Amino acid sequence: MFKSILSLGRRPNQLVTDALYGEIVASARQPVFYSQWGVPDTPLGRFEMLSVHMFLFLDRARGAPPALGEMAQDMTDEFFKDVEHSLRELGIGDLGVPKRMKKLAKMFYGRAEAYREALAAGDGEALAAALARNVLPESEAWPEAPKLAAYMQEAAAVLAAQDDDALLAGKVAFPEAGKGEAVA
After folding, report:
1. Considering 5, 25, 90, 110, which has the largest number of Cβ atoms within 10 A of its Cβ?
2. 16-63: per-residue pLDDT in tens?
């Protein structure tokens, strides 16, 4: 009884959204990104990896049946709600949050466009360059960027092979990053 009372006002897709978003976050937190591929283990570095995985999911949902498009919008809302929550946890006050949210949204959509163009063209070098520009903008070179680009290409293929109904049921799978790579 309490469960039904407490869940009033929740979107019907919330359980599915929570399941999908949980998988996206877990995939973005794969240790290889931070420990072996040089992604900074900072709030901004984690935002970058979360953005990569959100982009991959949203790109998979593009052009899919309307129900998946609606789910993609729910996921986008969840992503930005999570980003806002993270800003508040970092101590950003009520007056600073909207300005930073606007900046982060612009960053996300700019990255998504660059990643979409490179993936659509099958251009791993352009994808690696976009990742390097976004993930480690202060570095002259990022030797691991091609590894992350290859991971994104693999993830896009894995997501493309997943059934729409499975995604709508809250089941999404990303590949394991660095699988088969020798550990240094």
Report:
1. 25
2. 899 999 999 999 999 999 999 999 999 889 999 999 999 999 999 988
